[in-house]
Amino acid sequence: MAVRSLTQSLLRWPEPQQVLTLVVDWVVQIAPEHPGLQRLAVFGSYGRGDAGVGSDLDLLLVDGLAHGPQHQRLLAWPLADLPLSCDALVLTPAEHKALLADGSAMAAALARDSRWLWCRDGLIRG
Questions:
Q1: pLDDT, position 11
Q2: How far is it, in rounded angstroms, from Cα 22 to Cα 12?
Q3: pLDDT, position 123
Q4: b/e map of 104-119 (b: 16 or more CB within 10 Å)?
Q5: Where are the alpha helices (DSSP H) in 10-69?
Q6: Which of 89, 85, 31 is nearest to 60 (CA)?
Q7: Which phi and psi angles does 4 have, rounded to 5°?
Q8: Parallel, antiparallel, or unpaired: how do β-strands 57-63 and 86-91 relate?
Q9: Is 57 helix (H, G, I), strand (E, B) or coil?
Q10: Helix axis angle, 93-101 relative to 105-113, nearest 10°?
Q11: What are the CB-based long-range contacts (under 8 Å, 24+) for 54-58?
């Protein structure tokens, strides 16, 4: 979401830390409505720490109650309330573990780039 400066006619892209703070605020707000949600991470440019103007948000939601195909899982999440355009993966803990173990390029990227921002038990761990 580009933000118009009050003193200039230019649009400003939000700073990465501001985006991450807004993501944490978002998950804290919606977590009570999603009792299966266990952890949330960003990956991609926000996970690596090299996000810049035009970067989208890549989210990983680990939800123990997730079921059905990915496109149906995404319907349960108010992704439009996030500060930027978002791509999300909603995985059960078993699916997440299996994905990380499968040796794919996606597994390597998630293992390397995931930055955990929220955990239901309050402990942030990789």
A1: 67
A2: 16
A3: 66
A4: eeeeeebeebbbbbbb
A5: 16-30, 45-48
A6: 89
A7: -75, 130
A8: parallel
A9: strand
A10: 110
A11: 54/13, 55/16, 55/84, 56/84, 56/85, 56/86, 56/87, 57/19, 57/23, 57/82, 57/83, 57/84, 57/85, 57/86, 57/87, 58/86, 58/87, 58/88
Strand partners, 63: 37
Rounded CA separation 45/112 (Å) = 11
Distance CA 27, CA 38 (A): 11
The candidate with the shortest Cα–Cα distance to 114, out of 60, 66, 62, 70, is 60
Predicted local confidence at residue 10, as pLDDT: 57
Read out DSSP for 76-116? Answer: TS-GGGSSS-EEEEEE-HHHHHHHHHS--HHHHHHHHH-EE
How is the beta sheet containing 37-43 ordered, strand by strand? Answer: 86-91, 57-63, 37-43, 115-119
Q: Which residues of the chain have pLDDT under 70?
A: 1-11, 123, 125-126
Rounded CA gap, 73 and 55, in Å? 24
pLDDT score, position 31:
96
Q: What is the pLDDT at residue 13? A: 84
Distance CA 54, CA 94 (A): 33
